[in-house]
Amino acid sequence: MSTDAGGPATQPVAGPRYCYRHPDRETYISCQRCGRSICPDCMTPASVGFQCPECLREGQASVRQPRTMAGGMMPDSIGLVTKVLIGINVLVFAAGFFDPGLSQDIGNNGAMIGTTVDYRQDFPPGVAEGGYWRLLTAAFIHSGIIHILFNMYALSIFGPMLEQTLGRARFVAFYLSTAVAASAVVYLLSDPGVGTVGASGAVFALFGAAIVLSVRRRMDPRPLLVLLAINAVLTFTIPNISWQGHLGGLVTGLLLAGALFYAPRPRRTILQVAAFGVVGIAVVAIVMVRTAALTG
Asked: Which residues contact residue 168 at a Cβ distance below 8 angstroms, ignoring those fewer than 6 apart?
């Protein structure tokens, strides 16, 4: 406070303040944690007042992120990856459904075929000839409406539940790994000149994971086991169904789900990564052995 000669007391006038991130913007708001001046673009509402971007990041870093039962990051929405997988399958099927020529091209280039030598003339290579992509692409091709409806219905039932309990990254790794493993079993046990398509291997893997999850949660798995038994009967009684793919997917799904849901917390991540590594090594070994047998 100062006084003029013979005059009343006056208050000092504070100078203007400017945002610490935008020096050209005048502001009268300060961060409640550090006191720095912030403009409206830099304000984040807090329980009391506002926070600046740096203090907000520091606060978020100190908050422990929620984890799923398997140790993955908790998804912020349920079933997003499942919807993407369903969308890919439907788009591929629709493209072929409305264009028969394109449907033939998709099947010729993407179906799971062991070898085209001595079976087809002027045909894209099978797995034995280096067409390794077929191990994955076959899981996104379907032979008819009933086929895709059954697989997508099953995926829509089991997918969101497992995506929520595994976390998105683990769910994607599980789905793609089991799809490839199922194709590898088809490659090993099926007629190498017969094409196989469909997401059934990965779907049966989800089936197996749902059974493991129910046991882990101490729920009654019998309804799932009955449903599995019904599907097993259909697999072996209806013609043109790949029991090899169903079996490969189911066994791989059971084994991977065991590692994902039962790994001890202190070593959970490393054991889970090791389990995926074992599946990958098994797939490579199957492909090498079968290829050697087919190519002599």
From this structure: 72, 73, 75, 80, 81
